[in-house]
Amino acid sequence: MVIATGTGVLGAGAASAASFYNPFSGYRITGTWQDHLNSGSLGGIDYGMNVGTQLPAAGGGTVRNIPDNGTGGHTVTTYHDNGYRTQYMHLSRFVLADGAVVGTGGIVGLSGGQPGAPGSGNSTGPHLHWHMIDPNGTRISPLDYLGGGGGGGLPKTATEQDGIPGTIFWQRAQNWLRIESGYTGPIDGVPGPNTYAAVQRDMRDHHGYAGPIDGVPGPNTWAAVQRLAAAHGYTGPIDGVMGPNSWRGFARFLNEDRWD
Prior knowledge:
Blueprint: E1 2-3, E2 20-21, E3 29-31, H1 33-38, E4 45-48, E5 54-56, E6 61-66, E7 75-79, E8 85-89, E9 91-94, E10 101-102, E11 107-111, E12 127-133, E13 139-140, H2 142-146, H3 159-162, H4 167-181, H5 193-206, H6 219-230, H7 244-254
């Protein structure tokens, strides 16, 4: 799930943050915030995932790597411009140099947690531990930060009404592709070759696209997208030429709650 921050649960102090999202909404929560408090921890959210899973930054900022951070093992902290920090624990490997600047969705490390493995700390099984720290130094739940305790959510795209794809449309598309087709780039609403290659992979797997996965969409790519759109109210030709009605049908699909 993705949310553009502003005046929501964070108030005006969060306005300097361009966007934050939950990179792990597609993974099962194996330890809740309350579970951590009950065990004597200061709090956190655990997501079950295989060792070596790429960990996207929930928001842009400056990266600080802390090797063997006590019980948390290898820990990466992202310092955000609004004074908040996000921390991922039990990493198997850092990806960026200490002090590097990362954008929202950029990969900051690989998950770990295998008991006894380097960087695992006191982990009892492969997973990611995630928490945030507010400007006062208090540990907070990232799901509360994102709103409603459920991880926040992108607004629905107006493309469903006006037939014009814009930033929110493509953010929702990137989040859909992250969940369903292995997209690992930023959720920035700016489509590029990685976004389009993920579209092609999804169209190949689900909508009959048989062309190359080259990140350069052409008529065959868009014809497959039109087949997807046809299942969501598009009634025009499958001709590979995207127009307002094609985009509206595609947007109805992207506006489904599961891609929030």
